[in-house]
Amino acid sequence: MTTTVIPGARAGGRGRPSAVLAWTLWASTLLGLAATAWFDHLLRRVGRPDLAQLTGEAVTIVLAAVSAATAGAVLASRRPGHPVGWLLLAFGLVGHALTSAAEGYARYGLLARPGALPAADYLAAFASATFIPSLGCIGFILLLTPTGSLPSPRWRWWAWVAAALPAVFVVAWLLGAAQPDPDEPLRSVSNPLAIPALAGPLRAVAGITAPATALTMVVAAGSLVLRFRRARGTERQQLRWLTVAAALAPLAVLVTAAGIITEHPTVANWAAGLYLTLLPVAIGAAILRYRLYDIDRIISRTLAYGLLTLLLGGGYALVVLGLGQLLGRRSSLVVAGATLAVAAAFQPARRRVQAAVDRRFDRRRYDAAQTIAAFSARLRQQVDLDTLTEELLSVVDQTMQPTVVSLWLRPPRAASSEGLASP
User: Fold this and answer.
1) Nearest CA to 125 among 168, 185, 179, 81?
2) What angle do the packed helices 9-45 and 59-78 form, to 10 degrees?
3) How many C-beta atoms surround the C-beta of residue 311 within 10 A?
């Protein structure tokens, strides 16, 4: 009897339990968000809609949690040995879904219907302690992307410090008479885990470890710069995906800060939430190497259509306002005229904007297109085969930049192969 071993069968066998676990954690994230929505429903039924969490401002919590959990589940199921997938799952599950579900449980069991739910004060304490560990989780995600290992062995001591700080914070926060933020609904709830005799020292420890954990996240982001400088080939291309996501961070921070300063929390929440939604997608695409070398094209298309939207949207608004002053704001001619103007300008504007963006951000593609266009124009007038061959090889070398270029020409058929016989 002969046994045939199929290559890769063992790897698939090992990966199957990991995939089941990854998607189970993903489903748990969705269940946590569903539980949060259910507690919001209960709070509204008892006349406390002010305690609901998933309002218009908090929709980004759902987006960020689902994005992180989905990217993490895909990564963990396909590459179970890569820690970033599991970290993304932990960030979506613990940092968002379970925290919001525990917060909803505590709000209903302590404020809306006191005594209706058991252990509500314990869940309130848990919900108040997860923010700093979430920051630590983001720091490790950045530190281990894209290879799954530290930038160098010299980073081991820093990794131990970055792992210890959130753990020390959680212990100090829970045992040091932790109190939620003064603006939070649960600010008046006492912590059942607190040790009053150690409250002062433990609060001091929590006050030190919280900003220190945020600092580890900044250092982890800086490690990506060091990786990018030393990276070559595929790893460098992976890091370019993260560079695009990192380039949007200042804009997200500015919009978030502007929303907070101007007292528009909805704007701040949407800016931060959308960025946290984008980041896991970029990390997942980089690690899985999905369309890895299409990053330049994605950037140019995103910029082109973004600028086109701004231009045509602004033009539409100007046409509506201008014609509205003449024909009246309620006139249907205003809307019809603006729509026709935008429709007529779309294709010419798209071509001009795309060309301008390619010249600036995708120069290689633009130069290749120009070279091919010039060669096509000369091709119509070229009849010499040797000259045409040299120009064709030159164009291929300029546009594709291969290591070796060769051209094979099919030899002409012999007279005998054409079925011609002498009389």
Assistant:
1) 179
2) 170
3) 16
CB 124 within 8 A of CB 110: yes
CA distance 398 to 405: 11
Q: In this model, does residue 17 exceed pLDDT 70?
A: yes
pLDDT in tens, 284-331: 888 887 665 555 666 666 666 666 676 776 776 676 666 666 665 555
What is the dihedral angle through the alpha carbons of 201, 205, 208, 214, rounded to the nearest 10 degrees? Answer: -150
Instruction: Indicate the DSSP class of residue 93.
Output: I
- Residue 285 pLDDT: 81
Distance CA 88, CA 138 (A): 8
Other beta carbons within 10 angstroms of residue 11's beta carbon come to 10
Rg (CA), the chain: 30
Residues in CB range of 218: below 8 A, 6 or more apart: none
pLDDT in tens, 258-275: 777 777 777 777 777 777
Q: Which residue reads 């809306």 in tokens?
A: 112
Q: Show the tokens assigned to 304.
A: 């082109």
Residue range 29-53: mean pLDDT, rounded: 92
Whether residue 146 is preceded by a cis peptide bond, meaning omega within 30 degrees of 0, is yes
DSSP state of 110: I
pTM for the complete prediction?
0.69
Contact in structure between 71 and 279 (CB atoms under 8 Å): no
Residue 191: partners with Cβ closer than 8 Å, 6 or more residues away: 121, 124, 125, 174, 177, 178, 179
